[in-house]
Specification:
This protein is of the alpha/beta class. Helices cover 48% and strands 16% of the residues. Helix 1 (21-35) packs parallel to helix 2 (55-65) and helix 5 runs parallel beside helix 8. The longest helix has 34 residues, at 269-302.
């Protein structure tokens, strides 16, 4: 039986930003207006992921206008997964929500997410109703990725659920304890578990500019997720090797039968060349898949930090061990 919770004393909002100066001016005040009506104390952490526009200057102006805003400036562009990690480790609220800086995550959904949390859910994540705002190829590949990464996996990553979510403090603490450097946050959200519930939402139109997360970035992130949370590629190599071995045995038996019982001399040159080229391609593909896993191991054993903070500005909420 789930015990209802009281209203949270404090809420943190983590908002990674890369070249989002024009959007922050509009999005941050809108989100703060909603958050300040939900809790006594609020902080909104803008994580600048090495932006090349006026994102830092815009965030500083927002700090002067809104004392709840915090700027976390990374030393360079580490990627959204690292920016999210930095924001979550800096967040101090009883409840932590994650939102994009482009304005596509509706702040009006936050009261409903908090209501689900008060009903007992530890994680409330938003799921897209459609991907109509994305190219058909991108949407199709995204659906294929989720089916493949969940195939034979004990941990099911919810399809079409992004980073827009609200989490209890204990969930954030669990995420912060995970040590890996190659982080696939959607998989990590699922791995830590806890009581979770989903709500549907329709993404809002992007305020300004266009997304810089194209097919190349999506493919890189999907590859990281696949290697981090699934052994399906290795299993497929095993199955493919078994099938090829069975096919070669069958073909050898057919050649012997034709030669001794039918008296047919099977020409071998073309068969040998085609077979060698095919098997060479399979071997190189297999080595490539193994290299992806070994490369991730190499990155992990170096134990470099996932991100580096250049500067933190703004007050935000007091640390957990500081009396309020």
């Amino acid at each position: 039986m789930t015990i209802p919770r009281a209203a949270p004393v404090s809420i943190s909002c983590v908002m990674p930003a890369y070249n989002e100066a024009r959007n922050l001016v509009r999005v941050v005040p809108q989100v703060l207006q909603v958050l300040t009506g939900l809790a006594e104390a609020v902080e909104l952490i803008v994580v600048d992921d090495g932006s090349r526009d006026d994102t830092v200057e815009t965030a500083r102006a927002l700090i002067r206008a809104h004392p709840q805003v915090v700027l976390l400036r990374l030393s360079r562009n580490f990627g959204k997964e690292a920016a999210l990690t930095a924001g979550l480790q800096a967040a101090r609220g009883d409840v932590v929500t994650i939102m994009d800086a482009d304005g596509q995550h509706p702040a009006a959904l936050l009261p409903e997410m908090l209501a689900r949390w008060r009903e007992g859910a530890d994680v409330v994540y938003a799921v897209r109703r459609t991907r109509a705002d994305q190219p058909a190829l991108y949407a199709g590949l995204a659906g294929l990725f989720y089916r493949f990464v969940n195939w034979g996996n004990r941990i099911e990553i919810p399809a079409h659920a992004g980073d827009f979510r609200l989490m209890d403090r204990k969930v954030v603490q669990a995420l912060n304890r995970l040590p890996e450097r190659n982080r696939f946050m959607k998989g990590l959200y699922a791995w830590v578990g806890f009581q979770s519930t989903a709500i549907d939402y329709e993404p809002l139109p992007r305020g300004h500019g266009r997304t810089r997360f194209g097919l190349r970035g999506a493919f890189t992130l999907a590859l990281t997720g696949m290697v981090s949370f699934s052994t399906a590629p290795l299993q497929l190599i095993t199955v493919l090797g078994l099938l090829l071995a069975m096919a070669s045995i069958g073909y050898g038996a057919w050649v012997v039968f034709d030669y001794f019982y039918e008296g047919i001399a099977v020409p071998g040159y073309a068969t040998i060349v085609a077979g060698m080229m095919f098997l060479s391609g399979i071997q190189l593909l297999s080595v490539g898949v193994l290299a992806e896993y070994v490369g991730r191991i190499y990155d992990e054993v170096k134990r470099r930090p996932a991100y580096l903070i250049d500067q933190r500005e703004g007050g935000g909420l007091p640390p957990e061990d500081t009396p309020q």
